[in-house]
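User: Fold this one for me? It's UPF0033 domain-containing protein.
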Amino acid sequence: MNVTKVLDAKGLACPMPIVKTKKAMKEIETGEVLEIQATDQGAKSDLTAWAKSGGHELLQHEEDNGIFKFWIQKGE
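Assistant: Here's what I get for UPF0033 domain-containing protein.
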C-alpha cells in the first residue's frame, strides 16, 4: 500500500484522533492514503464512522501490541 502521510495519534483520547485525522486529510490529495496510528480503544468505531460519513474509504485496519493502525483513502 502506498501511504502518503502517517499520523501519530498514539496517547490521544477521543475526540483528538478524529480532529487530527480531519486536519491531516486536508493536507493530502484525493486518492492518496493516510495511515493513522492510535491507542484509543474508541478509534476503531470513530474512524470507521468518520471515514464513511466523509466519503473516504477505510482500506484496512489492524491492531499490533495495543496500537491500532488504520489506512484511509481520501475521497472526493
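One thing worth pointing out: The domain at 5-73 is CATH 3.30.110.40 (Translation Initiation Factor IF3).
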